[in-house]
Amino acid sequence: MATEEKRADPRAPFVLRVNFRDRTDCMDATENLSRGGLFVQTLETFRVGQVVHLSVGFPGLLEPVALKGEVVWVRPGRQDAVGGVGIRVADEADRRRLDDVLGGRSGRVIQPPEGGFKVLLVEDNPLVVEMYSYVLKKLATAELRGKVPMEVHFAADGHAALRALAEGGFHLVLTDLYMPVMDGFALVQKMRADPKLRDIPVVAISGGGKEAETRARAEGVEVYLRKPVRFAEVLETVKRLLRIS
């Protein structure tokens, strides 16, 4: 059933925040999306056949879209992938809403800044930094066709990040949460308390569990991605937060 649906409605990498309406503390993220349904990364437990009411959206870009769906398959979590559920959307009105989201008609796309984008990566693992850097380079060369500069800065901890942010002009911060000297939670807290930094979108990428996610959201991160994170997730998240069509 799930295979036939995927063939009929090809899925695309599409990262949106997901809120389950009957689980107020449950905020997860899509991994991919199609007109017929979506896959949601989650640590929550669902069963095949369960009816779920949820909303999908993206902070500052896409107002929450309410949907009703049915769990059609479950992917257990493992070392190299976050667990989750495939949800089929049968109602035609809901399918049209998903179609609008996929078509970009629900979001607000703006022109890139004249001087290009300036992004800060806060991560103490050089291999992870290399992967994120590759994502941003691909975004600059492929999505922006090399016409808009993508200036990437690096910091190994929260203190170094604050020093970099003091230079000004940043459009996005991607940060780990568990780092030496000053962790990501403290970094976000200080950013949200600073009038000059509070409006910069923050993406937290961490291997922490639900407690870490809840705390990060409470501190003010726009998006929480769980490690091991996929290339497409980072790419789509950055595109949406920078409002790149």
Detail the poorly predicted runs: 1-7, 106-110
Largest sheet: 6 strands, antiparallel, barrel
Instruction: Write down the domain tally.
Output: 2
CATH fold-level label of the largest domain = Rossmann fold
Q: Helix content range of the residues, please?
A: 25-40%
Q: Compute the separation of the termini in Å.
A: 32 Å
Radius of gyration: 18 Å
| Count of DSSP-assigned helices | 7
Number of strands: 12
N-to-C SSE string, H for helix and E for strand: HEEEEEEEHEHEHEHEHEH
Q: If strands are numbered along the chain, what order do they take across the biggest sheet?
A: 2-3-4-7-6-5
- The coarse overall form would be globular
Can you tell me the CATH architecture of the largest domain?
3-Layer(aba) Sandwich
Which range does the strand content fall in? 25-35%
> In the CATH hierarchy, what is the class of the largest domain?
Alpha Beta
